[in-house]
Amino acid sequence: MNGTYYISAEQMTVGYDGKPLIENISIGVRRGEILTLIGPNGSGKSTILKSMIRELRLIAGTVVLDGRDMADLRERDVAKKLAIVMTERIKGELMTCRDVAATGRYPYTGRLGILAKEDHAIVDAALETVHAKDFADRPFSAISDGQRQRILLARAIAQQPEIIVLDEPTSFLDVKHKLELLDILKTMVCRQNVAVILSLHELDLAEKVSDRVVCVAEGRIDRCDTPENIFKDDYISALYGIGTGSYNALFGSVELPAVSGEPQVFVIGGGGSGIPLYRALQRAGVPFAAGILPESDLDHPVAKALAAELYAVPAFSTPADAETENVITRMLAIGRAASTVPAFGETNAANKRLYEAAKEAEILVSADALLRGVEP
Predict the structure, then answer these.
(1) CA–CA distance, 77 with 368 (Å, rounded to integer)
(2) Do domains 7-81+161-240 and 256-371 have the same CATH topology?
(3) 163: β partners
(4) Taking the domain 256-371, which CATH number applies?
(5) How many C-beta atoms lie closer than 10 Å to residue 69's C-beta?
(6) How many Å separate Cα 276 from the centre of its chain?
(7) Do the Cβ atoms of 376 and 370 come closer than 8 Å?
(8) What is the full DSSP assignment across 225-241?
(9) What are the tens digits of pLDDT across the range 166-212?
C-alpha cells in the first residue's frame, strides 16, 4: 500500500459471524481527499466501513490509521483522529441537539466529561457550520431525520478529526441539505486537510464530490479509480445490472425506457431544448421521433434513450441534403411535429428545413401545449 494513506485497509476480509463477504480488500484514503464507495444495495459498502472503524471484527487483514495498526490503539486515541457518522439511529432521549453534538468533545475531556468554555465554543461553531443553531436546544428525539443527520455531522465536526467516515450521509436529506453537507465535507478536505471516506447511493453526487471512487459488487472490489474513469454509461450499467432504462454519464442521471410503437410526433430539438419535451412525452406514454441531432448535441443522449426513432449525424457534422430530405419525408409521414428550438442558425440549417416543411404542411403543434399535457 502507498505509505501516504492516512487510513488504509490491507488485505482485509470482512463479513459476519466469521463468514467472509468480501476478501482481500486493499484500499486507503489520504489527507485532503474524498474516497467514495458506490455499488448496489447489499454489495457490502456498509460492511467495509463498519469493519474499518472496528464496529465489526475483521476476519483477516489489518486497518492502519496514521501509520499504526488500529487494533493496537485505545478507543480514545482513535476518537481523537477519526469521527464517524453512520446510518443507525442513535438514542438521544432526554438530550438536546446541542447535547448530542457536544458528545464529540468527550475524547478531549476528563473522566467526568465536563466541557470547558473552549469546548462549548467548538460545539457552537460546529452547529453553525451545519446550519443547526436554530434548533440546537430542541430535544434530539423531536427533530426530523434530516435534522438528526445534520446534528450527527456537527458532532463529528466538533470532534476535530483528521478523518471522517460516513455511511450514506445524504439518505435523509433534501436537495438543499445534501448539497450543503457535501460542500461542508469538501471545505474541510480543502481547508483543514481532512480525509473523508463515505458511501453514497446518489451517483450524480458521488461523481461530483469524490477524488477517487471504489466500486463494490458481487463480493469484491470491482474497481478503484477517478470519477472520470468510473462514471461511464456502460460500466455503471454493468455495475448496477441496469436492464430497464439507462444510465446517462453526461448528466449523471438515469432515464426510463423509451416508449415503443409508431411515433405520434416528430420533435425538432437541439442544444438541450428538447429534453423537457422528450421526458414529458415519455411520461405520457407517447412514442416520438427526434432529430436531426449531432452526436455532440446536448439533446442527443436523452433522445437516444427515450425516442422511438432517432435521426442523428456524427459529432460536429451536418447531414447531407439527401439525408435531410429523407427525414422530412419521414416527419411528414408521422403527420405531426413540434419544435423546441428558439432560433435556427447556420449550424442547424437542416432543422430549419424540417421546421419550414412542417409549417408548410400545417403539421406543427405547440411544444408548450405538449409540455402542459395536451394530447399530441
Answers:
(1) 62
(2) yes
(3) 82, 195
(4) 3.40.50.20
(5) 11
(6) 21
(7) yes
(8) E-HHHH--HHHHHHHHT
(9) 999 988 888 988 998 999 999 999 999 999 999 999 999 999 999 99
Closest CA to 310 of 339, 268, 281: 268
Quickly list DSSP for 29-75: E-TT-EEEEE-STTSSHHHHHHHHTTSS--SEEEEEETTEEGGGS-H
DSSP H or E run through 13: strand 7-16
What are the residues whose beta carbons fall under 8 Å from the beta carbon of 89, sequence distance 6 or more?
148
For the chain, domain boundaries: 7-81+161-240, 90-152, 256-371
pTM: 0.86
**Cβ contact 126:207 at 8 Å:** no
Query: Is-contact 100 151, C-beta < 8 A?
Result: yes
- Cell readout for 157 is 465536526
Residue 115 gets which letter from DSSP?
P
- For 182-283, strand residue ranges (E) read 195-199, 212-217, 220-225, 246-248, 253-255, 265-268
The CATH code belonging to domain 7-81+161-240 is 3.40.50.300
pLDDT tens string 357-372:
999 999 999 888 777 7
Whether residue 292 contacts residue 326, with contact meaning beta carbons closer than 8 Å, is answered with: no
The predicted pLDDT at position 3 comes to 47
**Which residues, in sequence order, are CB contacts of 311 under 8 Å at separation 6+?**
289, 290, 291, 292, 293, 327, 330
* Separation CA 245–CA 259 (nearest Å): 11
- The answer to whether 6 and 195 have CB atoms below 8 angstroms apart is yes
DSSP 364: B
Q: Which phi and psi (to 5°) does residue 124 adopt?
A: -60, -40
What is d(CA 292, CA 351) in angstroms, rounded to the nearest whole number? 6
CA gap 325, 295 in Å, rounded: 19
What is the C-alpha to C-alpha distance for residues 370 and 376, in angstroms, rounded to an integer?
Answer: 6
Q: How far apart are CA 161 and CA 322, in angstroms?
A: 66
Q: Is 261 exposed, middle or buried (0-12, 13-18, 19+ CB in 10 A)?
A: exposed
